[in-house]
Amino acid sequence: MDNSKIRCFVIGALMMFLFVSIKTQAQNVENGKKIYETRCLVCHQADGGGVPNMNAPLDGATNVVGNDITRLVRIIKYGFNERVELDGLYYSNSMTPNPDLTPAQISDVLSYIRSSWSNKATKVTTVQVQQGIKGSQKTSTK
Amino acid sequence: MKKGIYLLLLLSISVHFLANAQENAGLTLPNGFKANLFAENIGSARHIAISKNGVLFAKLNRADKQGRTIIRLEDENKDGISDKITGWANYGGTGIYLNGNALYASSNEAIFKYQLDGKDEVVNPLSPITVVTGLINRRQHESKSITFDKANNIYVNIGAYSNACQEKDRTAGGQGMMPCPILDSAGGIWKFDASKENQTYGDGKRYATGLRNVIGLDWNPQANKLYVAQHGRDQLNTFFPSLYTDAQNAELPAETFYEINEGDNAGWPYVYYDNFQHKKIVSPEYGGDGKKEGASDIKNPAVAFPAHMAPMGVLFYTGNQFPEKYKNGAFITFHGSWNRAPLPQEGFFVAFVPFKNGKATGEWEIFANGFAGTVDGAKITSTRSAKARPCGLAQGPDGSIYVSDDTKGSIFKISYQK
After folding, report:
1. CA separation for the pair B10, A131 (Å, rounded)
2. Can you list the domains of chain A with their CATH numbers?
3. What's the Cα-to-Cα distance from A54 to each of A41, A49, A74, B49, B332, rounded to whole Å?
4. From CA B41, how far away is CA A3, in angstroms rounded?
5. In this structure, what is the dihedral angle of CA atoms B63, B68, B70, B73, given to the nearest 10 degrees?
6. Which residues in chain A touch residue B170, judged by CB atoms under 8 angstroms apart?
7. Got the DSSP string for B355-378?
8. What is the pLDDT of residues A111-138, one digit of tens each?
C-alpha cells in the first residue's frame, strides 16, 4: 500500500466510525424521546418545564445537566420523593419509579433529557448507567 | 420626514395594542364586567380574605423576598389598586379566613389566629394563637384550606398524601390498599372549634371522608352547608394503559363539587366520578375496568366539571353589585391542568355555578377567562407557560370579587358597572 492508499483507508475508516457513532447517538436520543413520551411527559410536560410546585422542571435544571450521573440513574430507577430543594424550589408530587428499564434504556432517556430543550449536556453511556446502578445500590435507602 | 410619520404610526399602533392588552387586565368577562390588577408580583398568592374596610390579606405558599408569607394590601387612595403593602409571618401555606377581626391562616400542618385592630392592622404578628396543630403533611396534597360555619367552627381540608392509595404511590398497575389506611388521618374534611387552642386530631372530628384533595371550600350561607371542590385522581392512562387511552384520561375522572353533610363519603380512593356515564366507577386499583359501578351510598357531586382542571377556590356570592343571577351562586377558580398531557391543558379560568334556593342547578359556565395569557385561542401544552393561574377568591365590601394568581402573584379585581 502506498501512502495515498493508506490515507484513503484511514479517512474512510474514520468516516465509517464517525457515521456509526453519530447513528448510534441519534438512535440513543430517538429511543430516549420515546421513553420520555410514554413515561415522563405526563409529569415533566412536553417542553420539560414540569408543573410549578408539583413536578420539577428538567429543562434548565442544574442537576439534570450536571455531572452526578449516579444520582440521575437512581432517580429514574427508584423514583424520587424527597422534596429536596431543586434550584431554589420544592415539588410535592412523588415520581414514579422505573425498575423495569434496562441500563441501555436509562442511558437513552437520560441522554434525551440532557440534550433537549435548552439543555446541552453530554450523553450518558450504558457503562455509566451500570456504574450508577452499582453506586446507587450502595447509597440507596429504598 | 416620511420616516418620522412611519415611526409615529408604528408607535401609535403599538400603543394601541398595549392598551388593548391591558384592557380588563387581559381577561374575557361577561358584558358589563370590568377587571383590573389590584396588585402584581406579590408572590405565590394562594387564598385571600377581605375585611369590611376593603383591606385584602393574601396567604403565600412560599416566603416573598422579604421573608413574609401573609401579605396585607390596602388601597388608601381608593383608585382600585393597592398602594400600601405590608406583611408578616414566615410559614408557607394556603388557607386564610377572616372572621370579624380575627384572622386565621394555615401552614401545611397548623392553623393560627391573629387579632386585627380597628384599622385592620395585625396586633400580634409574632405571637399568634395556635388553634390547630399536628395535621398530616406528607408533601403531596399538603395544603390546609379553611372555612367557617356560622357557629365558629373551622372546617379544614387534610389532603390524601397519595394519588389512589396504591401500596406504592404512582406506580404502573399497582393495587390499592384495602382498606385505605390514609383515610384515618387524611383524605377528608376535619371540623374544629375555633375558640379552642392547641387542638389536634383527637379534639376535632372527621366531618367528611373519601375526598382525595380539596383546596376550594366555602360555607353556603343560604343552605347553611359546607361545599367543597375535589381534585380528582390522576394518571388512569399511564398506570392502566390497557384500560384507558390518553384521550380518555384527559377527560376522566370529573373534577367534582359537593354539598357536604356531616358523615358524607365521596368515595376516594375506591371510586371516581365519570362525567360521561354519570356514575361512580370503581378505580382500576380496586379491580375496576372503567365500567364497574361503585357502592350506591357514596355521595354524588352537585356539579361535575371536566377532568384535571384543579379547582382552587370557592366563593358563594352574597354581594349586591353583580346582576341578580349571581346572587347566592358559587364562583370557582380553576388553576389549569397538567395531567391532560399529551393532550392540551384546560382550565385557567373562573367558573360560575348558578344556585336556586340553596341548591346547585347542575349547570356551570365560564365567568372569567384569559388568565393563561395565550393569544387567538392558542392552547397551553405545558402548564408552566400559563401566565397566571387562578387560585384564591374573595368578595370585597362593595360586591366586587378578587381573584389571586399564585404564579406571578397578581390580584385581579372584577366589578360590574350598570
Report:
1. 60
2. 30-140 (1.10.760.10)
3. 14, 11, 20, 25, 21
4. 71
5. -120
6. 79, 93-96
7. EETTEE-S--EEEEB-TT--STTP
8. 999 999 999 999 999 999 999 888 776 5
ipTM: 0.86
Residue listed under C-alpha cell 377581605: B50
Q: Residue B29: left if φ>0, alpha if ψ -120 to 50, beta else—which one?
A: beta
Rounded to the nearest angstrom, the minimum Cα separation between B60 and chain A is 13
Q: How far apart are CA B363 and CA B372, in angstroms?
A: 24
Q: Read out DSSP for B335-355?
A: ---STTTTSPB---EEEEE-E
B22-416, superfamily in CATH? TolB, C-terminal domain (2.120.10.30)
pLDDT means over runs of 10, chain B (418 residues): 47 43 88 97 98 98 96 96 97 97 98 98 98 95 97 98 95 95 98 98 97 98 98 96 96 98 98 97 98 95 98 98 98 96 95 97 97 88 94 98 97 94
- Give the distance from CA B323 to its chain's centroid: 24
| Contact status, residue B27 vs residue B390, Cβ threshold 8 Å | no
Q: Return d(Cα B418, Cα B323) in angstroms, integer.
A: 9
Of A108, A55, A23, nearest to B238 by C-alpha is A55
Rounded distance between C-alpha atoms, residue A61 and residue A89, angstroms: 11
Residues of B in contact with A95 (CB under 8 A): 170
CA B205 to chain centre: 23
- Beta bridge partner(s), residue B280: B273
The domains of chain B are located at 22-416
C-alpha cell read off for B194: 375555633
At B294, give phi and psi (nearest 5°): -85, 180
Q: Are A77 and A136 in contact, with CB atoms under 8 Å apart?
A: yes
Chain B environment of A37 (Cβ under 8 Å): 342
Distance CA(B280)–CA(B129), nearest Å, equals: 42
Q: Which residues contact B290 (CB under 8 A, 6 or more apart)?
A: B243, B244, B248, B281, B284
In whole angstroms, give the CA distance from residue B9 to residue B17: 12
pLDDT tens-digit readout, A62-89: 999 999 999 999 999 999 998 899 999 9
- Best residue in A35, A37, A89, A94 for a mutation probing chain B (most B CBs within 10 Å): A94
- CA angle A86–B348–B229, rounded 5-degree value: 90
